């Protein structure tokens, strides 16, 4: 069967990545691409790397243009998808790559985003361990799915196995992430200029203000945490894509290197797209560039009493567009890996 | 039908890229991967990005291990493939990604390489215009194919249309290429260290010593040139992959902007993997990262009396491994694009 | 003696670099820094790397604020310096880092810039060979100096020695430059975003439209050319600073490797800031990062009949701010190298 | 007065940086440069960016060549300086940029390095707060100084103010550092190749094995800690130089945002080379590139109960060669900032 697909926000990075991945999906057929200021232009004028779409022109992003498709991907700024999603066909599968439908708590929404609260959809991180089963169980048959925040899902996948197994302390989690600028989108901001970023690393949202924090806490609660606290610092580093998240947690009483490793390998046993590396190996972001893979390396630092989890993810794939397509596959009953690659483009 | 495949030099960049691409090829099945100093190791210990091959171990590179496969890809240092290829099965399709079987002229070989001369195989750049037809015509049914030099094929594809159409002068061609270091392989050389290359550009093989020069001249002769001369300067720039080749040629008498553009668009009309961009557009290497696409932009500089051709290619894909697989598809009678993507991984 | 200094455009890259260099100049004292949209802010809020200026606040860029200083550096957008310079004190030394006072030919100005023509000031590239002497001779005692275009001065220094000595043909020059994005300033343009540039090379102003072309031709005429033609293609590559210019020219009849090398080594004998490398050596941009040095490597390609000149320059130092300060030193009768470093910051 | 200087390890990154900085030092005169495998070559053949030293040739690194100078800088692999330093003149000022003379504890040495233990020299981080005064007090008149580890000094400067003031808990410190590859020297290792690092981030020495850990703990004990524990994870990111260290610590009981900020601003009040940024500002490594400056940004994350300290340092300057020269200035009674710049080379 072929599913008709519309992609909104097709001129941005997430929208472009959705299109790149869908080009290899044998059952998805892109009929409509929409944008805002670039509406009316050929898609390849804005996304010159998408050579298989030379026939498409960007339409205006509005409900009328998005209706009538089997699947609608929303890759819009925060606030915009919430507004438009109410107008879409009920029976369409709608996947929001923005933040509007990720948080269950209106208080969290108000504290970190503000504006209208749209309520949570099914969270699109299939492998995420929950106290019972995984998030995958909730995606089958879903018609409304919230693709995750790229940093949030990387950290949630990093820490949830230890929370669920009780081998780490949910209090006093500390995460520092090296991230590329594409996570910030095509926004024209001085600090995102190449001149500013080439050869330089910097921190932002220091001190607990990053919007992905409540999303991480929500995911960890699903894995069994009560009131997890996390110090979360993202660093902008000069690579176009990629997240390398270093997350540390205190060992729970009684936990040791063996029980720690078992917690993670058990959680991801049999998973295609989340792989725990052997003892002593740690991932590079290049290993997952362009791939829907999360690679996780694990160590126990006995002297510091902490587990250290290093995870590499491509923010635009496993962190956004790949998660969206993988979740769509599950929702539709297709083989989960359809159209997604496990191999990174390296070097 | 499934073809059994062996990849030698699987621990290097070209070998790794062959494997990455073959993972998406529905009819190729990798049975054997070989290496030299890394023999005995799991493939993913050396190529951690190739997650779909966690089951493979590197065998020793020798004829015994490579024999018995339908297809053998050689990704070995110059000199090594020539030696081993004589020992492979006659009926196997053998594709050499090294230089040993590219040059028809023993004098050129002696001048630019030296050592044993192995003779030329069919040259693996299907779209290359020849005075009659394209190089593709010679690849159907071939059993011995020489994948091109990445710089050479990029420049040959850039200039051959103008040579064949007679709109440019074959004398006094000038090409400067910005290239990433992966073209130099994993060699441990000081100038290839990240500390040396990050934030810096440099030239090498200045003054006519680069080994790809005779390969370009050979390709241009196939397109109708007699004794083309080319000033060829490669620049190392800080991107892991990619070639951006700026090639200029003097306008032939009577040629104008229209006849120039027609020469290139005619040459590549209907091609999937070589695309001429519209007037005023020029490619970025990011547009072809990971893709088997060559993008070509074209301008006529009236004041300077020169055509300027800017071509972007991923040196490891269209420049090497993708060309090898595309040529193998043709040789075997498979759809030419099988297993190859036209879309770049950008940003 | 201490000279009072004002720097306009102090929030931009050229202005910032002037301030960085002046901080090490024992006789220049920055009293006033001006900006446009950032006026009113502490300098270090906009230029956080300039730690020796934590006491300065950006004033509005206007003639009133710039008057009354011994030296005024203008680092303003094209058109703006021409307008303001008429209002400055006659006895002040005014150095324009913009384009407004570089071109002698009103026709060139009209063709490449347009708008009001302001006329040429003394051109601030001291080492530039002229048919008699060097450009330095015209800078002593000057009160109005035009700092060069960074690409233009790099190419002019690359080719002028050969023109003056008659060892290269002035027709059919070809230059390709790998340049970093800081030459384009802090402009908020999509193609200058880090996401777009990291890992990617691209060409711009292809086909003879770059504004530095007439400036190069003017400099080559000063060295003895009549009507030089040049194919000029700049490439954006992912390094924050630096120009690596590869310039080629046809050997003049009778010229050989020895006479070619002599032309360049004679032209720059005794120069501190322009150095010709020994046979077989070619520069990296990292070698001149932060330095006021132009490094030049030279080869003769006998087969192609061309001289190849590779020059490395820091676009913000020798290409702009360093050239401005070096020229100011000469104008004021100070030792030419005051406040300027010859050593690059590498790796 | 002019001091005669010898620099050993002059072909490496630390040695090269010493020479670059000393070129601007009015009282230091480099007489001898030594190397190992590069002995006999002109210095600029190996360090082409050091244009003010075109007259120097690399001698063999041995005690004979290093003796007879007022100041000897050792920039040698671990183990080598310890061996050679015993043979140097007693009255010379000897500054070791290696690890051999940093640790006071033989047990720490044995655990993290092994081999001969050479004992500690005065530690060359002048601004480091100690329970009484600063480390500067111990450097005046010293003749044997150990320049710090670049990561260690960055973290020690980040955390020592809070330890001394009692506003943070010495247990459960967590630091993640984004570092460039030049800290690893010119070693020819696969993971340091540009192809491997461009566009990629990775972690190393995960889980408590990094050799700078005991050096940090030692410095924190000097500031008043008893038995500090630290989880320490360095990340290799694609910038040639720079350290961005994100260090977090639990707030001590009773500490609040005001007392935290006061601890750091008091500790570094009046310092030229360690500057605490205003509330809400955080440093970029580009801000200190080439400079002897450590920039520190500070936040209190109330929800996580942690102080977050972000520090930017140029690993080769403030982290190594600049620290060495600053310490030498103090030892000799020269103005501390002689020859050192506070301004970074940005963008």
From TrEMBL, chains A, B, C, D:
<dbReference type="InterPro" id="IPR000534">
    <property type="entry name" value="Semialdehyde_DH_NAD-bd"/>
</dbReference>
<dbReference type="InterPro" id="IPR050085">
    <property type="entry name" value="AGPR"/>
</dbReference>
<dbReference type="GO" id="GO:0051287">
    <property type="term" value="F:NAD binding"/>
</dbReference>
<protein>
    <recommendedName>
        <fullName>N-acetyl-gamma-glutamyl-phosphate reductase</fullName>
        <ecNumber>1.2.1.38</ecNumber>
    </recommendedName>
</protein>
<feature type="domain" description="Semialdehyde dehydrogenase NAD-binding">
    <location>
        <begin position="4"/>
        <end position="136"/>
    </location>
</feature>
<dbReference type="Pfam" id="PF01118">
    <property type="entry name" value="Semialdhyde_dh"/>
</dbReference>
<dbReference type="InterPro" id="IPR058924">
    <property type="entry name" value="AGPR_dimerisation_dom"/>
</dbReference>
<dbReference type="GO" id="GO:0003942">
    <property type="term" value="F:N-acetyl-gamma-glutamyl-phosphate reductase activity"/>
</dbReference>
<dbReference type="GO" id="GO:0006526">
    <property type="term" value="P:L-arginine biosynthetic process"/>
</dbReference>
<dbReference type="Pfam" id="PF22698">
    <property type="entry name" value="Semialdhyde_dhC_1"/>
</dbReference>
<keyword id="KW-0963">Cytoplasm</keyword>
<dbReference type="InterPro" id="IPR000706">
    <property type="entry name" value="AGPR_type-1"/>
</dbReference>
<dbReference type="InterPro" id="IPR036291">
    <property type="entry name" value="NAD(P)-bd_dom_sf"/>
</dbReference>
<comment type="function">
    <text>Catalyzes the NADPH-dependent reduction of N-acetyl-5-glutamyl phosphate to yield N-acetyl-L-glutamate 5-semialdehyde.</text>
</comment>
<comment type="pathway">
    <text>Amino-acid biosynthesis; L-arginine biosynthesis; N(2)-acetyl-L-ornithine from L-glutamate: step 3/4.</text>
</comment>
<comment type="similarity">
    <text>Belongs to the NAGSA dehydrogenase family. Type 1 subfamily.</text>
</comment>
<keyword id="KW-0028">Amino-acid biosynthesis</keyword>
<keyword id="KW-0560">Oxidoreductase</keyword>
<keyword id="KW-0055">Arginine biosynthesis</keyword>
<dbReference type="GO" id="GO:0005737">
    <property type="term" value="C:cytoplasm"/>
</dbReference>
<dbReference type="GO" id="GO:0070401">
    <property type="term" value="F:NADP+ binding"/>
</dbReference>
<feature type="active site">
    <location>
        <position position="150"/>
    </location>
</feature>
<keyword id="KW-0521">NADP</keyword>
